[in-house]
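Appendix C reproduces, verbatim, an entry submitted by the partner laboratory led by Prof. M.T., so that reviewers can inspect both the input and the predicted structure.
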Amino acid sequence: MLFIMLSGKWPAKQRKIAMLVNQVNLLQRKFEYCSPRLVARHDLKFALKLARDAIVSQSNRPAESSSVNSLNETCVICLEDTDRSQIFSVDECQHRYCFSCMKQHVEVKLLHGMVPKCPHEGCKNELLIDSCRKFLTSKLIETMQQRKLEASIPLTEKIYCPYPRCSALMSKTEVLDYSHSLMGSEQSVPKKCVKCHGLFCFSCKVPWHSGMTCYTYKRLNPNPPAEDVKLKFLASRSLWRQCVKCNHLIELAEGCYHMTCRCSYEFCYKCGAEWKDKKATCSCPLWQEENIWLEDHQDDEDEDDSDYDDDFY
């Protein structure tokens, strides 16, 4: 479908797709000759490798005699000549990209709950926070710190503060050591959040139930809190899917059913079946048209209204 649009046989109506097609057309004009070809999915990596090798060979060409050109460097992602002061070099591998492309790359990875790594294909080097301060906003830096913290704590060690105004992520070992230094190591004593210092039950994962055992508390409170009930109802009504590995809730705003959770677990949004080696283990369709053309339908509705007056997780 996308190839048909790029070849000009079918106009792109969705805003994001139209922007992509326009960007590809602009890039095509930079070449002396360009002939688009539809590549099979299993040949995609080979095609990308050829493309990257060609780009690198062009960007590493001998420097021009002009002093102006010598101050510029071609970003191998956007193919734009950029002032070298605006080029970012990854600390470990020294792969180089412009600030604009790096910012977009990091934003997408953080949005998907992942720790950003070098954009170069096959490179596993993680980006350092201090180095990324050159092109990231303070809010993105804070999000990146949170993602690195989440990734540093194993799933079996993660624990969250039960107080809604805090909800700090901690490791069980961290909580036990912090509480032991303050109140002792007895199982019956409350544990303390390292951030808000609120007392909570390590076994029940709820605010501290003073004067009663865990068994008594669970017997007197058999039903989940009202907030949890509301969340479960909202998730069911909105058709949200919960990751079976980390229990994170995911909402499909638009796109295909292949989900990649922030914990890196891949599954089918429609039925929850796991994806293995980038392949589905279920027979569900890859997408539904209303999810792919969501913006088109909305644009059509807006146009109809104008006749009278005017995801991803």
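The longest strand covers residues 72-74. Additional entries are available on request from the coordinating office.
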